[in-house]
């Protein structure tokens, strides 16, 4: 299945950024006006935990820690979710997504998109390198455009931002999720 390498790439991107969060940056603002770095990271950890729990049948654990302790929770959640991704043999199995039911493949791509976009969010929030691998962006953008009505629900994402026809994949993916590519902390 082509999804697993892209998911692993998204995990590496987020992992690189979370390990770069400085001691005073956990309360820094992010491109999502309602979230600081801690809340963003908790969201990502909880998504990884829910995915792994849904695949393995084990109960999902929500993280309750703050600050640097989130790095350890992230390491455990991403390891568990990566194992769950690798263990899937039938991606056509029905699975819940926030807007209803779909397949494990659709859910897996949604989780990969979420992780990719939030790796960028985290990079921008902490002033880290915000470029992402071209192959990851192209694959995630392709899936996101196909699933935009299912994935980008108004209660979870800001409205999409129109972009010119010839723009790069990162700018287009971020615009689909209601993010301005040139966002900077205030």
Automatic annotation (TrEMBL):
Q: Which domain of life is it from?
A: Bacteria
Which InterPro entries does this entry report, sorted A to Z? Answer: CHP03086 (IPR017520), DinB/YfiT-like (IPR034660), Maleyloyr_isom (IPR017517), MDMPI_metal-binding (IPR024344)
Q: Where are the transmembrane segments?
A: none
Q: Where is the Mycothiol-dependent maleylpyruvate isomerase metal-binding domain?
A: 8-123
For this chain, one GO molecular function annotation is:
metal ion binding
Q: Which SUPFAM superfamilies match?
A: DinB/YfiT-like putative metalloenzymes (SSF109854)
Instruction: Please give the name of this protein.
Output: Mycothiol-dependent maleylpyruvate isomerase metal-binding domain-containing protein
């Amino acid at each position: 299945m082509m999804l697993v390498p892209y998911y692993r790439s998204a995990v590496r991107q987020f992992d690189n950024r979370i390990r770069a969060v400085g001691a005073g940056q956990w309360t820094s603002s992010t491109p999502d006006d309602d979230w600081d770095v801690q809340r963003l990271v908790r969201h990502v950890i909880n998504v990884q935990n829910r995915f792994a729990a849904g695949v393995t049948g084990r109960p999902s654990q929500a993280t309750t820690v703050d600050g640097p302790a989130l790095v350890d929770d992230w390491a455990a959640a991403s390891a568990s979710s990566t194992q769950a991704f690798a263990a899937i043999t039938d991606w056509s199995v029905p699975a819940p997504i926030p807007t209803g039911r779909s397949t494990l493949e659709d859910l897996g791509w949604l989780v990969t998109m979420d992780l990719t976009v939030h790796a960028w969010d985290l990079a921008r929030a902490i002033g880290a390198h915000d470029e992402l691998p071209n192959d990851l962006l192209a694959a995630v953008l392709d899936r996101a455009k196909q699933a935009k009505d299912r994935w980008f629900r108004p209660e979870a994402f800001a409205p999409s931002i129109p972009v010119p026809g010839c723009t790069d994949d990162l700018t287009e993916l971020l615009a689909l999720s209601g993010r301005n590519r040139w966002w900077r902390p205030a």
